Amino acid sequence: MKAKRVSLVISGDKLILMSAIVVVFILFTFLNPNFFSRVNITNILVGASLVGIVSIGHTYLIIAGQNDLSPGSLVAFSGVLCALLVSKGVPLLPAVLLTIVAGAIVGLFNTWMVNNIRIDAFIATLVTQTIVRGFAYILCGGKPVAISNANYITFGRARFLDIPLSVWIMLLCFLFFGFVLSKTKFGRSIYAIGGNKDAARLAGLNPRKAILICYVMMGIICAIGGIIFSARMNSGQPAANVNLEFDSITAVILGGVSFTGGVGSLGGTILGVFLIQAFNTGLTMVNVPSFWQYVARGALLLFALTSDYVRKQNREKMLLEASKRQG
Amino acid sequence: MVVRGGGMGHTLAFENITKYFPGVRALDHVSFSAYGGQVLAFLGENGAGKSTLLKILNGDYQPDEGRYLIDGEEVHFDNPHQAILNGVSIIYQERQILFHLSVAENIYLGRMPSNRFGVINKRLANEKAQAIIDDFGLPIKPTTLVKDLSIAYQQMVEIMKAYSRDNLRVICFDEPTASLSESEIESLFRIIGKLREEGKIVIYVSHRMSEIRAITDCVAIFKDGQYVATVPTESTSEQTMIRMMVGRDLGDIYRNLDRNKQIGPVLLEVRNLASDHVQDVSFSLHEGEVLGFAGLVGAGRTETMRAIIGADKLQKGTVYLRGKAIVNHDPNQAMLSGIVMVPEDRKTQGILGNLDVADNITISLLDKHSNRFGVLDTSEEATIAQRGIEEFKIRTPSPHKKILELSGGNQQKCIVARWMATNPKVLILDEPTKGIDIGAKAEFYAMICAFAKQGIGVILVSSEMSEVLGLSDRIIVMRGRKISGELAAAEATEDKILALAMAEE
User: Min CA distance, A107 vs chain B (Å)?
Assistant: First the structure.
């Protein structure tokens, strides 16, 4: 039992990932010495915090055999909504709660499309992506909503042990959701459902309910992410966070979650998040033109998917070898 | 010994064909030959390797070792399409035709006669198709849409499609009669006879001894992925063939079982059950009874069971457990009330391939092994998994091996262990021994008897006649989505079951 857990924490895949992070750091520090500085590393962590919490939702969803393309829009929408509510005189706490409820409703909408109309998750959440982005613009008439509430702004600037609050929130989320994924019946059922939905249902699990929980969880995570992001920006920005889901999904796949479901862990995801954030920050710091950064990000996702494919082939090869030994 | 055919020329030789799948060696150094002008049967139990060999022959699978030669020349097909182009066709029980196209369009699919601008000449296609239809002596028109034909004629269209290629050398039939009536089978046999006369290599896969007797010249026998021998159909007794394919006398296995003799009161009663797939099904199951369900594929047996456990939606009818009406909206509710099912298709419905052996055993008891916050008690889980592994003699190097690394029989034992850990009252086994070797089968039979002795009501759905006859206390036969009859063990014979399963509508 012990041996199994340890090997789960540092398997070969994760070592490769850690080495990749080290290589990225060395490479970018060589190109721009400021890369390996306290300020920049804090910046990377802050940048990673939003992708980080969204990637938790993606880890759950993709392991469960689902996906979600709506987080970028939902984060922007949540920031606008919360900022707008506060600017209209709603006290901070109710405004935050209302925003979270709105996020959960978007999650329910995604669930409804996937569970009830049986639309493929990818295309269903593309619907949500567009609709929710639209509402973000409609709410504020297309203009960013400034935040003047002092507590709200403090929330975005507060630090503990000189590390911004958003980073702490991300780390706590990883610990909590990591525990839930590996140690609870909900976590276990997600693996089963992502591995084989029909078999899981026949074994007495409830795939529809688990899928609902995952989407609603993602909705709430995005709402919280949107509130923190707007606090950091001092405003609700309807056009922000485009491609957030892209970075998040890339991080999750890099971290070893199989795109076909049923395989992966949050330990891998957090490494994937650091890798992609360091990569993105580095590209900017060494002055790669932003048009080329798109190409680089696409290449990184392609790389992640390719390594996912190779891992899958290796798993199958191992199984086949095992059968041959048996036969 | 090799049985030679009419010397019409065509030969098909397999040399050392070996194929692995996760958990099984599906084919183990298979070598033999087939000849043109004779019909060769493939005989063997489920999982003996017949279908795998066909799929290797037509390029659907690639062999891990070995090769095959047609007319002395080594051939290699990357996919079934390439095989068809080279004169190797398989006629499956599931028809692989396009229902919304006409007979002629199906026959000449992908090679419709056309002029040099690529414009299709339908009239010419219809004429050519009509010639083949006349040749086959069938009362259908080339312009009819395939969806408007009976199942038997749809199959004929497939055969004509293969036949229309001038270079057809090998034609295989995989359980072609599964859904045909007597008269339809007769006309199929006439056409198979015609193919034989024309010197084609005809391979015929079937479980039905009477058909093998009627149409084939020789029988190639397979057992557990190995080729045993080819024998002439006419001069070999059925007993001999069965002994060769089973490896030992199955009768002994059944005779030596420790059967439960004390059958208790009614445990489960199903009244007027109907779903999208079955109509008006009523039966009862007693404590400690093994109730066999026989019938052809598609007769509605699996669908009946799925409706009982709530996997399919119930439209009508009531399920009573110990006299109390229960409602199962999903398999979870059925499990909580004590009804569990080992599903028909182990790979797609039974095992969770991404999880290990222990997780597969404990997955249905997550509620029981977790506290009120849903946190799992891993040590209790390990205990349950270990107990299941020992009790059901699951051969695995460790509880943390991926279940896919186990052999088929051991995978199936994990599913049984999963359900037995929930202390069920009713255990439904749907084709429990499909694709597992004879040794593991015997273990399953002993297990089934042991469950009955514990007072569990066992429903055994099986397409293997000997299994249903050898294990059941009572046998229910289904046909066309309904129950067509019930037989007590003492009076049941293979013929009586077949009569109930196959009678014409």
Answer: 22
